[in-house]
Design brief:
Radius of gyration: 25 Å
Number of strands: 26
Helix content: 25-40%
Number of helices: 23
Shape: globular
CATH architecture of the domain at 186-367 and 561-584: 3-Layer(aba) Sandwich
Strand order of the largest sheet: 5-4-15-14-13-6-7
CATH topology of the domain at 186-367 and 561-584: Dimethylsulfoxide Reductase, domain 2
Strand content: 15-25%
Length: 731
């Protein structure tokens, strides 16, 4: 058993020799002016990795100098226009604090530190520990927490090793409840991009969805198309968001009462028979049970819970129904809120079903992807134990590994897991309440490997830190999403890797070969994998390096035909308003509303969201995006500001219900948030000193989320049940 403590990357380790010089000499105005006026010399295709939207792009270089990044006009994700963050990808290459050499933990107790190591020594250490874990405990005792397209390489390694415990925080900390709720209703969840047909919609309903602030490229464009086409916009949000400023109806809902509003909307649709009776009789299961259940959930009842006037509830329900099926009820993305989030998604899915929008023009289109074969390698060994063995007893309908379950089984004397890979996911800024668990896990696990581009907070818990080169310097798996127009996009290296950083595919292959898994990595270079796959679908790497994107004809219709009775991939083959699957698992077959806990006296709901300048906690140290937004602000209603004597522009500390205080954060006094709530952008307040730009700027909302509301159905970590008060501080 290894005994290790959190190591801060000191200024000695985080030197320019390790992390790279500031902007590679491009910090002077004259140099920037020269770069902007010279013509581009070379264009290389890439897929943006600044957020998960994965827009196809072109990297413009002159020799080994990066000039700019632009969108690929042939790509449906961006149509040639990148968002703020995508164009700011230049900073991902020139980030002055990048990890450029491997690090290994040395010393004991208070003398623990990181030392620079050769790749051979770092990889040998990882291989030796993995071999020992397999011999003494079994390969199923290794887990991985991963994020992004490059995660496929580490996932392949861990599966070949003999473990299926590979979780993406995007499931338990983001999309999982949404996809589970829709899957239970329609037999299908949502992909990325979401299949919302907003360009053809006559009504668009957003519930806590911040289109325009999250800058999901094609979603913003089609939302704009909907506005241009005079679609009615209905926004449900405690805060006056950018989307709310475009809305005909802004419903300033009391936090945590979404299910009450959804049930009232369903009540109106059924009570006034605002649905297609013929369609319902053919394609629905459980309508009578639903009607009896929602009879009591009148708009008058919902008014007492949500604070929304009954007439507004009726009027918005009728507006949706009047133009259905050309109504988009946007499912949102981040959906881990109040612990009943699968049931919240179920209520949304039921309403969408009653409006008849699945597979209909102006509602949800039917997505399709390219049938891209996987490169032939041996079958993975069957793990002795599976993630399901640990997860399903607690969360019976989890459809994927759950990060919090893995971490709960990664510490203590009898911990199930003995080793952990963490790829491109900064757990301290991602999972609520994780720092204490990470500290315990670091003392229990025999091996922690962090593969990252930056010296983020997670690297301080690792035994070995392996520096990956940025997305602009590597090949990754082809982008192949379910979407309106089937297409594939190529990410190719446009620049040589900086320092000694390496692509993820190389790291996985090197480790695999050292532990006897070379047959799972039969290629010399990952280009071979990509070229083989492309040739199976009638193209090649050479062609894709020229075009970047290839569009394929659809093989199935994008909408159901008028009068068609579709079959859904549910147990009944119908849209299941009443879920026998939930009932058999011991849960409510119809969505149950539970009144959320109110803030204690002098405290306020802690709400959080996104900004167009940043992606979660990934980009605060990007030298381009940092200049656009160096810190976050906390929005406070004037009544709260007056009560505490807080001035606009001053600094405060946020203190949660358990006495945990944030770093100082600047105040924005505004009526755009409810009097009972505060709001701030997620991802700031970094504590990793190796992130020289981001360190200490703004408040870290995740550190204030000490009260976690677990979704009992699939294990999502509800993060909205925390409250804060204010402590004056700073200048």
């Amino acid at each position: 058993m290894q005994r290790r403590d959190f190591i801060r990357l000191s200024s000695a380790v985080a030197s320019t020799a390790l992390l790279g010089p500031s902007l590679a000499g491009c910090s002077q105005p004259a140099e920037w002016q020269r770069l902007m006026t010279e013509p581009p010399a070379t264009e290389t295709p890439t897929v943006c990795n600044i957020c998960f939207w994965s827009c196809a792009a072109k990297v413009h270089t002159r020799g080994e100098r990066l000039w700019k990044i632009t969108g690929n006009p042939e790509d449906s994700h961006c149509e040639g226009r990148l968002c703020t963050r995508g164009t700011g990808g230049v900073g991902a290459y020139y980030d002055p604090n990048r990890l450029l050499k491997p690090l290994v933990r040395v010393g004991k107790g208070a003398d623990q530190r990181f030392e620079v190591a050769s790749w051979d020594n770092a990889l040998a250490l990882v291989a030796e520990r993995m071999t020992r874990i397999a011999r003494e405990h079994g390969p199923d005792r290794m887990a991985a927490l991963v994020h992004g397209p490059g995660a496929a390489h580490i996932s392949h390694l861990v599966r070949a090793y003999g473990s299926d415990s590979i979780a993406e925080p995007a499931f338990a900390q983001c999309r999982g409840p949404r996809d589970t709720g829709f899957y239970l209703t329609f037999g299908q969840g949502f992909g990325s991009p979401e299949q919302t047909d907003m360009a053809n919609a006559r009504c668009i309903v957003l519930i806590g969805t911040h289109i325009g602030e999250n800058l999901h490229n094609s979603q913003v464009r089609t939302f704009t198309d909907g506005i241009r086409n005079d679609a009615t916009i209905i926004v449900v949000d405690p805060r006056f968001s950018v989307a709310a400023s475009k809305a005909r109806y802004w419903l300033q809902i009391r936090p945590g009462t979404d299910i009450a509003l959804l049930l009232a909307w369903i009540h109106v649709i059924l009570a006034e028979q605002l649905y297609d009776a013929d369609d319902v009789s053919r394609t629905f299961l459980g309508l009578d049970s639903l009607a009896a259940y929602v009879a009591a959930f009148t708009p008058e009842w919902a008014y007492g819970e949500t604070g929304i006037e009954p007439q507004q509830i009726r009027e918005t329900a009728r507006t949706m129904a009047a133009v259905a099926p050309a109504t988009v009820l946007h499912p949102g993305r981040h959906s881990t809120w109040w612990g009943d989030d699968t049931q919240r998604a179920r209520a949304m899915a039921i309403l969408a079903g009653l409006l008849g929008i699945w597979g209909r023009k102006g509602g949800y289109y039917l997505p399709e992807k390219v049938a891209l074969p996987g490169y032939p390698t041996p079958a993975y060994p069957k793990p002795k134990s599976s993630w399901r063995d640990l997860t399903l007893p607690h969360f019976p309908l989890a459809g994927a590994p759950v990060t919090n379950v893995i971490m709960d089984n990664a510490y203590g004397k009898d911990a199930h897991y003995k080793g952990l890979f963490v790829y491109d996911t900064n757990l301290p800024m991602t999972m609520p309440g994780i720092r204490r668990i990470l500290e315990e896990a670091a003392r229990s696990l025999d091996l922690i490997v962090a593969v990252d581009v930056q010296p983020a907070e997670i690297t301080g818990y690792a035994d070995v830190v392996l520096p990956e080169c940025s997305y602009l310097e590597r090949y990754d798996p082809l982008r192949n999403n379910d979407e309106r127009e089937p297409s594939i996009a190529l990410r190719a290296p446009a620049l040589p890797p900086r320092g000694e950083s390496k692509p993820g595919w190389w790291i996985a292959k090197q480790i695999g070969e050292r532990i006897g898994l070379g047959t799972y990595f039969p290629w010399k270079d990952y280009q071979e994998v990509i070229d083989w796959q492309l040739r199976q679908v009638g193209t090649s790497l050479a062609e894709m390096r020229k075009t970047g994107v290839k569009i394929f004809p659809r093989k199935t219709p994008i909408y159901y035909a008028p009068g068609e009775t579709p079959t859904f991939d549910t147990p009944s083959g119908k849209i299941e308003l009443y879920s026998k699957t939930l009932e058999d698992a011991g849960f409510d077959a119809l969505p149950r509303y539970t009144r959320p806990k109110a803030p204690p006296e002098g405290f306020y709901h802690l709400n959080y969201g996104r900004a167009p300048q940043h992606s979660f906690s990934r980009t605060q140290n990007n030298p381009v995006l940092y200049q656009l937004m160096p810190e976050n602000l906390v929005w406070i209603h004037p009544t709260a500001a007056r009560r505490f004597g807080i001035r606009n522009g001053s600094y405060v500390e946020l203190v949660n219900q358990d006495g945990i205080a944030s770093n100082k954060v600047r105040v924005r006094v505004t009526e755009r948030t409810r009097p009972d709530s505060v709001w701030l952008v997620h991802g700031f307040g970094h504590t990793a000193p190796g992130l020289f730009l981001a360190h200490g700027n703004g408040a870290d909302d995740s550190s204030l989320m000490t009260r976690v509301l677990y979704d009992p159905i699939m294990g999502g970590t509800g993060m909205r049940g925390n409250f804060v008060t204010f402590r004056k501080g700073g200048a």
